[in-house]
Amino acid sequence: MTHNKKLTSTQIAKLAGVARSTVSKVINNYPDIPEATKQKVMAVIEQHNYKPNVFSSALKGIPQKIITLYLHTTANDSLTSSMGNLDSSYVMSVMTNFIYCASQQGYLLQVEVINESDCQESVLKRIKATFNERLICAAVFLGLTDNATFIDRLAEQGYKVFSIDRIIDDSLDGFNVTTDDFNGSYEATRLFLDRGLTEISFIGGDFTKLSARQREAGYRAALKEANITPDVIPCGYSELLARSIAEDLLKRGAKPEAIVCASDIIAYGIIKVCGREFLENVKLIGFDDLPFNEYQQPPLSSVAVDFHQMAEDTIKAIIDGCESKRIIAKTQLRNRL
Fold it and tell me: Pfam families, per this entry (predicted)?
């Protein structure tokens, strides 16, 4: 046996005189490969000591203990300080908790990016290939919009997929991971109502996301109970868009008694533009309770999401299965008023 410098599957295929896909099928023990071809490829693999990371388990037909977290980015995410930016506190909170909870169970979590502009057929084909070649055991998706229909097709075809903040129809095999956005926003709005405030505005998030729709619905429900007309200002999960809204509020001299923001990122935009004097008279509350809230001036109240529970429950469902197709992360109001 020779011990050459590590070869790639493409090089192994060339030496064996077969296609690279054939090498993959041999490694994964596909039944449609002729025995002579299988022996020829295995001889080259053995001769060159070719051992990819997935070699031993794949030969046994066992999916890897690897989970891929796919981060879906949109055009809106390219805006400054968008919640969907890869380096945003929101994305980092989700990612670090998933990495930790997966490692606690002996699993590896890898991260890949999908752009909204990517061809959905190509994305679908690529993800299916990773499953079919047993390179991963499950896929978790963060940031999908309703237009990202490839997730529905993956679920329809029986792949183990988990979608955060974008609903897959319950009739399909996919799992939905959400936060308790409705009740979180409802409680945030009730906090102001219980203090006797009645002029309460809501600055909304990206309406293509389930969380934005549910957070607005919670706000509306609280005001409906109090017989107060809602004041909804469309925005997006972006600090830059929130700054534009804040500038418009100042120009119009509009001063509601309180503002419920669909995310902390939106609240940060309001704080930066409006300043301390504005916030002495207008109460503000965000959503997600990002790490910097306590250091805002004044400190920002927010609805905290239990990202650890979200990750822990999702990883458990991947490994042990789950009777319910819905995983709901708890929320808790952090009052710093």
Answer: LacI, Peripla_BP_3
How far is it, in rounded angstroms, from Cα 209 to Cα 188? 20
In this structure, whether the domain defined by 66-178+308-329 belongs to CATH 4.10.640.10 is answered with no
With residue 56 as reference, give the H or E element that holds it: helix 55-59
Give 10-residue mean pLDDT values along the chain (337 residues). Answer: 62 89 74 83 84 52 82 70 69 94 94 92 94 91 93 94 94 93 98 97 92 97 97 92 93 90 94 86 94 86 97 95 88 94
- Whole-prediction pTM value? 0.78
Q: What is the CATH code for 181-305?
A: 3.40.50.2300
Q: CATH code for 1-48?
A: 1.10.260.40
Q: Please state, in angstroms and rounded to a whole number, the distance separating the CA atoms of residues 117 and 86.
A: 16
Domain with CATH 3.40.50.2300 in the chain: 66-178+308-329, 181-305
